[in-house]
Amino acid sequence: MPAFNSSIKKCKVCGKKIDSHKKMIVFNEIHLPVGFSCIYCHSVYHEDDILITIGNPDKVDIYGEA
Questions:
Q1: Domain assignment of residue 63, yes or no
Q2: What confidence tier does 34 reach under pLDDT thresholds 50, 70, 90?
Q3: S-S: 55 plus which of 2, 5, 22, 43, CB 3.0-4.6 Å?
Q4: Which runs of E-coded beta strand occur in 1-66?
Q5: pTM attached to this predicted model
Q6: Count of CA atoms in the C-beta half-sphere (13 A) of 1
Q7: 3-state DSSP call for residue 23?
Q8: pLDDT for position 1
Q9: Which range of residues forms the domain containing residue 48?
Q10: Does 35 map to a domain?
């Protein structure tokens, strides 16, 4: 049984195809599911495919001050 309603077929950030086997459940600090993430870029989505955290599709580490 899926933890969230999701109909997304491609990640909105990296554009790669994600199906139910490539969606990883994300838990908060008290171990409750809060959404799912793309297995490729680690962008986090909330229920109904709302993007809440942008992942790092290019795998570039960004350091320094903004």
A1: no
A2: confident
A3: 43
A4: 23-27, 33-38, 44-46, 50-53
A5: 0.72
A6: 1
A7: strand
A8: 37
A9: 1-57
A10: yes
Q: Summarize pLDDT for 52-61 with one digit per residue, the tens.
A: 888 876 665 5
Domain count for the chain: 1
Query: 32 to each of 2, 25, 40, 41, how far by Cα in Å?
Result: 14, 10, 22, 22
Compute the mean pLDDT over every residue in the chain, rounded to the nearest whole number.
79
Tokens of 43: 């962008």
Radius of gyration for the alpha carbons in the chain, expressed in angstroms and rounded: 13
The answer to the question of residue 62 being in a domain is no
The pair of structure tokens assigned to 65 is: 């001050």
Span 15-42, average pLDDT: 86
Question: Residue 53's beta-bridge partner residues?
Answer: 44
Residue pair 11/41 in contact (Cβ under 8 Å)? The answer is yes
pLDDT score for 65: 56
- Three-state SS at 49: helix
Domain membership of residue 64 (yes or no) is no
